[in-house]
Amino acid sequence: MKKLVGLTGKTGAGKSTVSAYLKEKGAYIIDGDILAREILTIDKSLLPRLCECFGFDILESDGSTLDRRALARKAFSTPENTALLNSVMHPAINREMKSRVEKAFSQYDTVVVDAAAIIESGFADECDVLLVVHAPESVRKERIMKRDNLSEKDALVRMNGQRDDSFYLEKATYIISNFCDHDYKKQIDSLAKELF
Question: Is the pTM of this model over 0.85?
Answer without folding.
Answer: yes
